[in-house]
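Query form — protein Lysine decarboxylase

QUESTION: What is the three-dimensional structure of this chain?
INPUT:
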Amino acid sequence: MTRSSDFFLSRQESTPLIDVLTTLKNKPDAAFYVPGHKRGQGISDSLRYLLGEGVFQADIPELPELGSLFAPDEAMAKAQILASEAFGADRTWFLVNGSTCGIIAAIAATCNPGDKIIVPRNVHQSFIMGLIVSGAVPIFLNPEYDPIWDLTLSITPSSLEKVLKENSDVKAVFLVYPTYHGVCGDIRSIVAITRRYNIPLLVDEAHGAHFKFHDALPPSALSLGADLTVQSTHKVLGAMTQASMLHIQGARIDPQKISQALQLVESTSPSYILLSSLDGARQQMALQGERLLTHTIELAQIAVENIKKIDNLGVLEFTEKRPGFHDLDITRLTVNVTALGISGLEVDDIFREKLQVTAELPMLSHLAFVISIGNTKKDINQLINAFRILNHSFSSSPDLPLSSAPHPLHPSPLKLSPREAFFAPKQSVAIEQCIGKISGELICPYPPGIPVLMPGEIITSEAIAYLKKIQKLGGMITGCTDTNLNKLSIILN
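ANSWER: The structure tokens for Lysine decarboxylase are given below.
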């Protein structure tokens, strides 16, 4: 069945969850079920002013007409089937705890305690949580690194092949595709390798939910043969924050194990407002996705071409395939600002406070901007103008040591599994005394949520230097007990 078939489009016009929720919202019954606000009648005046009553009238629990998230029938089952067809999966699960719960469930469903899983070091912190829940043991691979852009790329097929030859008992491979900056690795070759070894490929595709719907974008992970993908439908499509999807295909992953694992990490009181937003986002992309994304790509191209013309700025572009960099999502705009003599974190402050522009991800040397179906030509012009004003305000200062902190994501020795470290006794000590000790904390700048230190890992001077650099320049550090970074939690010997 092709996406353009009349039969497909006819089915995709349906919105089962939205239709039933609309009917229930307008049903004049006396509600003696939760939530306690009783369809908006009991909300505070401040909430009524902020959101109105409509959203609360649709805040309805798992009534029979809707079906259950954990035993899907009725509208819920129909909505997930339509999503699987639209995104090219054999089966799809709606997620209301974000992609985080999908990633944790994916690991728990494919790995038992002590099982090995191969993973790039630039994973989101949710993966580490999945290791803690499942008891799986990571084999970390160094992703390729671009020192000019200070960007972590993807792992390479050759590095994966080498580790698989050395570890015959690996149970799964985990891949980030695309990265936060839209960089895509050679997933086609990686799929060929995992199939040869008959192990499942799990993909964190949080930032690639739109790939399926336009040929000018990188191919989706499922279309290239991945066994499982987790997508943040809210990040680049039209769903509400916290609403994501998990997709599987093939026979290497047991769907029942996915369902069981999701019960560990999802609320037993799921929001049908969030779930219906997934239903609506799916319908929108199935019927209008190519047109909407064509406009989005045009906006991104306008931004790229105009920002490239501004002195002292660089724009990340895909020129040719190289290790770890096989493709690029053009709707993810990354702008290098080091030639201006200020950090991306400082630029973000200026943009937010003075120019009414907010980046998705400011880092030391660059900023990333998400251009999606919700952006307008006015947004793009405002962004371009902000960079023009910025360029006129700052002169080049090549002595600024933005990259003086060594890159922190090279794996340091893992002395304990993340699960063992999570439950081990810990002690808080001065940060200067932590080097060489075993980390008891999951510490990362956020976003992007890539851990610099994780439980069970040896604390290195490079990691400490990087965290201090981020903190000095105004970045946010999460996961540390002492938010001032004067102390860290270490594992007691």
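ADDITIONAL NOTE: The CA atoms of residues 11 and 82 lie 8 Å apart.
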